[in-house]
Amino acid sequence: MHKIWLIIQREYLTRVRKKSFIIMTLLTPLLLATFMILPGLLISMSGETETVMVLDESGLFEGKLEDKKDLKFIPLAGTLDQAKTIYQETDNTALLYIPEMSISEPKGFTVYGKKNISIQTQVRLENALEKEIENQRYIASGIDRETLDEIKANVSLTAVNLSDQGEKDNNAVITSVAGVAGAVIIYFFIFLYGVQIMRGVIEEKTSRIVEVMISSVKPFQLMMGKIIGIAAVGLTQFLLWIILSFIAVTAVSAAFGVDAAPSPAAQYAAGQVAAQGEDMENADISAMENPEGKNEFASTFNDIKSSFANLPVALIFGCFLFYFLGGYLLYGSLFGAIGAAVDNETDTQQFMMPITIPLVIAFIMSYSIVLKNPDGPVAFWMSMIPLTSPIVMMVRVPFGVPAWELLLSMGILVAGFIFTTWIASRIYRVGILMYGKKVNYKELSKWLFYRV
Amino acid sequence: MSILKIDGVTKTYANHTALDNVSFEIPQGCIFGLLGPNGAGKTSLIRIITQITGADSGKVYFKGERLKPSHIKDMGYLPEERGLYKKMKVGEQLLYLAQLKGLSKEEATARIKAWVDRFEIREWLGKHIEDLSKGMQQKVQFIATVLHEPSLIILDEPFSGFDPINANLIKDEILSLRDRGATIIFSTHRMESVEELCDNIALINRAQKVLDGPVKEIRDAYKTDTFQIIGNGHLLITSPDFEVLEQHDSHGIFRANVRLLNNTTPNDLLRYLIQRVEVHSFVELVPSINEIFIRKVKETHHA
């Protein structure tokens, strides 16, 4: 046990002290902070007001085009040519020309600009004009806008779980986010650090230290020490990322005086507001400007908060830790075995395939099938098979999984990683002393039963 | 008393036999040469002794006990394929390997200090292994092998990769380790390189032990009572007691290889010579281990 501890320490310390580790650990939160801050920063920077000069020959829109926070209208009089000349002398964004027309047949709108007019501006102008035309048509048919707004319905579904524990609010999207986030982390962790195990073993083989090592320790101790040591490196890195990201985001947003870009939940909320019948283009504006939108936003936000509160956080977190470690141990020992079986990294391809495929399939299935039907047969079986269960079960857990399924899946996973560790240690102890031999699956299967 | 006893050890890999019923003993406190051509099975045997692999059949006794894991910390092994963690510093690496052999941190640190002073490499301690030359790495690895003061030190091809100066340094260290009571096993295919160092040897060829015992006894057993004489004058041996195997004359100097017959002694030959020529040199021609090996291998093949 003492020796394993020494090995764990070495694996941990040499990696944590590497420059690449320190740089990655510091850089990632900074990048993350940048990505979170940048959109907010850009929005606030591009927030300059656009001014559009309007020559309205029809007279229909006179005084009707409302100024918005960042879009102002200046009415002009005279002929089009005169207007063009005046416009040329200013540095306004555009000149909108509305010809003589009737409200029943609006056409011939033209917008002049000194350079290309952005799509966004065009769309906003179109919206403003459309809205006004609609207004005028309502008036013509005897309805005013306010009446219409009163008629408009706005429905937001609250889904409630009727389960043994009684009623609880449920928000499918939030549930999905929690599960998928956990699954994604597990997926990347297995890949990132599994490959590190493999590289570590190959390094020991190519530097020929391995024979010295296993004249002091058992191959199994060496393998497990490496797997556990690297797991600790990974956990350290994730922990530091979480802490540093939090600090970085706080610091950067304080320094720039910008709110961080909306969190995924808030973005989702904004999206929902937009989806609930308002013009897509105006969604963010309406959310900011129109009091009704604000209320809606707030209520949606409260929905989300209550959904989070209703998630079985302790259960999800517990499952996350379990599947995180279980999946890592299961795959980690396989990665270690691959490292032992080959002489250099280029030879790993053929053995990487069968390990990568179940992981990738689990990941894709989580999105495409499991999320849509978390209690379906595909979801069930994939959350039982230990090669896919760390990812698939993680996606399912927030939706509520019967206790027996969860326990069965965990039991199978434990059995699975004991099994893969056994296989890996058999391959490992033969492989680490085998040089210059191209190994195939037949050879590997023989190694399992070698007496060493 | 023997520190290591190998009793009928057999090891087969998938399609070849690495060791076939090999038995011999290694006396305590000697330098033991494990000799044989490449692929004879030396490394397989060493891996069994160091418990890297197990024998298919047969037994190994270390200090009278069946080999068991706790013996590992009393052995030091320098493999033929040298290697250290390239990204680790010399000091850390030595400390790590010593601790894995069961030394406490304090003890290991003290011993590392003593060794780097002896080898005058103190300034290397903070360097990464990959920044050292190959010879330097070998020195570090040698220290790592003996740092825990094992009573059995196994060196596989110890002098490969060393320049003559460092090879001598290592040789002296090995002799002083033996004088302090350690037993050393040398494994090499270059038999001439270690025969003057070794007290005992075992010859292995094609998975089988060909020969073992104290070097002197083996040589005595294989010597042919042949002497090389160099001298001045015209040598013509007519006595039936002496057989001239080879003779060269040039400018009045002769060189002759003469074998004693009929139980005559070297002194008889000298007496015979002194009456006839001026003797400059009189040397017994003892077969080298290499020659004995070749002869022995031929014998076993013809038999």
Automatic annotation (TrEMBL), chain A:
<feature type="transmembrane region" description="Helical">
    <location>
        <begin position="351"/>
        <end position="371"/>
    </location>
</feature>
<feature type="domain" description="ABC-2 type transporter transmembrane">
    <location>
        <begin position="19"/>
        <end position="425"/>
    </location>
</feature>
<feature type="transmembrane region" description="Helical">
    <location>
        <begin position="172"/>
        <end position="197"/>
    </location>
</feature>
<feature type="transmembrane region" description="Helical">
    <location>
        <begin position="238"/>
        <end position="258"/>
    </location>
</feature>
<keyword id="KW-0472">Membrane</keyword>
<feature type="transmembrane region" description="Helical">
    <location>
        <begin position="21"/>
        <end position="43"/>
    </location>
</feature>
<keyword id="KW-1133">Transmembrane helix</keyword>
<dbReference type="Pfam" id="PF12698">
    <property type="entry name" value="ABC2_membrane_3"/>
</dbReference>
<feature type="transmembrane region" description="Helical">
    <location>
        <begin position="308"/>
        <end position="331"/>
    </location>
</feature>
<dbReference type="InterPro" id="IPR013525">
    <property type="entry name" value="ABC2_TM"/>
</dbReference>
<feature type="transmembrane region" description="Helical">
    <location>
        <begin position="403"/>
        <end position="424"/>
    </location>
</feature>
<keyword id="KW-0812">Transmembrane</keyword>
<feature type="transmembrane region" description="Helical">
    <location>
        <begin position="378"/>
        <end position="397"/>
    </location>
</feature>
<protein>
    <submittedName>
        <fullName>ABC transporter permease</fullName>
    </submittedName>
</protein>
UniProtKB/TrEMBL annotation, chain B:
<keyword id="KW-0813">Transport</keyword>
<dbReference type="GO" id="GO:0005524">
    <property type="term" value="F:ATP binding"/>
</dbReference>
<dbReference type="InterPro" id="IPR003593">
    <property type="entry name" value="AAA+_ATPase"/>
</dbReference>
<keyword id="KW-0067">ATP-binding</keyword>
<dbReference type="InterPro" id="IPR003439">
    <property type="entry name" value="ABC_transporter-like_ATP-bd"/>
</dbReference>
<dbReference type="Pfam" id="PF13732">
    <property type="entry name" value="DrrA1-3_C"/>
</dbReference>
<dbReference type="Pfam" id="PF00005">
    <property type="entry name" value="ABC_tran"/>
</dbReference>
<feature type="domain" description="ABC transporter">
    <location>
        <begin position="4"/>
        <end position="231"/>
    </location>
</feature>
<protein>
    <submittedName>
        <fullName>ATP-binding cassette domain-containing protein</fullName>
    </submittedName>
</protein>
<keyword id="KW-0536">Nodulation</keyword>
<comment type="similarity">
    <text>Belongs to the ABC transporter superfamily.</text>
</comment>
<keyword id="KW-0547">Nucleotide-binding</keyword>
<dbReference type="InterPro" id="IPR025302">
    <property type="entry name" value="DrrA1/2-like_C"/>
</dbReference>
<dbReference type="InterPro" id="IPR027417">
    <property type="entry name" value="P-loop_NTPase"/>
</dbReference>
<dbReference type="InterPro" id="IPR050763">
    <property type="entry name" value="ABC_transporter_ATP-binding"/>
</dbReference>
<dbReference type="InterPro" id="IPR017871">
    <property type="entry name" value="ABC_transporter-like_CS"/>
</dbReference>
